[in-house]
Specification:
By secondary structure, the protein is an alpha+beta fold. The protein is built from ten helices and twelve strands. A five-stranded antiparallel sheet has the order 2-1-5-4-3. Strands 7-9-10-12-11 form a five-stranded mixed sheet. A two-stranded antiparallel ribbon has the order 6-8. β4 and β5 form a beta hairpin. α5 runs antiparallel to α6, α7 crosses α8 and α8 runs antiparallel to α9. The longest helix has 53 residues. The two termini are 53 Å apart. The C terminus is likely disordered.
Length: 365
């Protein structure tokens, strides 16, 4: 059959939309224009004479056959001659799924048989764009909710020490004229101020750890020793470590300091915390683990331990709950992740991976 027999003329070959004509009784393709060949990957010789359902996903084939049979029998169908096109998935020659906009019309019957004319437009890119927009919107909603919760926690944790500061200052003002001893209130004022400063500094460190890293090559053992030097109450043991890593020196040192400080906080009273640092390199990634002999974590604590403002059950008063969140943020900013493992014999192992981001930069250039 020719395009002229169906009244298409030269438009059949020139139109940019795919045009497919099929015999409704046999379900076989009788006309296939160049745009259809480009869209589905079949040449006219491959397509003509084949079943049109080769373009239909398996889960839609029963509906396709039912509709084609109804149209063949009665000249009516759910999609035939509808005023608006419908969006449907379709199957390319190589098996991947396309998204198409389908307009289905009827052609004049010939020798008692009906023919269906399908005009199809590729909307795969539009669907991908829509899905990307939807994903971004969902992510933005999630981030907004997380920001609301984060802001609430910040306000709550700042309000408590600042309220103590205000209350102590008021008591000092009242007692100043009476000659009373307000040393106690000075202590409250000092501790409250320190707690507020610690929280603010923790938030700044979290923001820095979450930002874009500025990786440089550094001696890993040297960074570990520098971080440990700033923490009292720990005994450091360095096992096998890669000689050098590519990472942001400030955020890596801060993350290690937080892990050492964590071990010291949870050590038994009047005992030095024994801390072991080990690691290895695999491809473009380094894994670093810090283990201690403290109480470890209960199963109910492990899921949320890296979230901001989360404190372990044995946490001492005054902690910000940001230490492990900073570790996780640093790892994620370096293309890795942080996790917890229970140490055999008791204690905790905190591990994180960091990747060589400089390789990715070079790959893009």
């Amino acid at each position: 059959m020719s395009a002229e027999e169906f009244g298409f003329g030269s438009l059949f070959a020139a139109i940019r939309d795919a045009v497919v004509v099929a015999n409704a009784h046999t379900g076989r393709i009788v006309l296939w224009n160049p745009a259809a060949a480009e869209l589905f990957g079949y040449s006219p010789d491959e397509a003509i004479g084949n079943l049109v359902e080769m373009l239909v996903p398996d889960d839609l084939k029963p509906l396709h056959r039912e509709g084609l049979e109804r149209y063949s029998r009665s000249g009516e169908g759910h999609l035939i001659d509808q005023s608006e096109p419908v969006e449907l998935p379709a199957v390319h020659k190589d098996g991947h799924t396309l998204h198409v906009e389908l307009s289905l019309g009827s052609a004049p019957a010939r020798q008692g048989e009906r023919y269906a004319v399908a005009i199809l437009r590729d909307i795969s890119q539009r669907k991908r764009d829509e899905e990307e927009i939807e994903t971004r919107l969902e992510e933005q909603i999630r981030l907004n909710r997380a920001l609301d919760a984060f802001s609430g926690r910040v306000a709550h944790d700042l309000r408590s020490p600042l309220a103590k500061v205000v209350q102590a200052a008021r008591m000092i003002r009242r007692m100043k004229d009476t000659g009373g001893d307000f040393t106690v209130f000075l202590g409250i004022l000092e501790r409250g101020s320190e707690q507020a400063i610690d929280l603010i500094e923790g938030l700044l460190a979290l923001a820095q750890a979450s930002g874009t890293p500025r990786p440089t090559q550094m001696d890993l053992a040297g960074v570990v020793k520098q971080a440990a030097a700033g923490v009292e109450g720990i005994e450091l043991e360095i096992q096998d470590l890669p000689r050098a890593v590519m990472a942001d020196p400030i955020s890596l040192r801060q993350a290690l300091t937080n892990l050492f400080d964590n071990a010291a906080k949870y050590a038994c009273k009047n005992h030095v915390a024994r801390v072991t640092v080990a690691g290895y390199q695999s491809g473009d990634a380094w894994t670093i683990c810090v283990s201690d002999e403290g109480p470890g974590l209960g199963p109910e604590e492990t899921d949320r331990i890296f979230e901001p403002f989360t404190r372990g059950k044995g946490s001492k008063e005054g902690g910000t709950g940001l230490g492990l969140a900073i570790v996780a943020a640093m790892a994620e900013a370096h293309g890795g992740q942080a996790w917890y493992e229970a140490r055999e014999g008791g204690g905790a192992i905190f591990c994180f991976t960091i990747r060589d981001l400089s390789l990715r930069v070079r790959d893009r250039t």
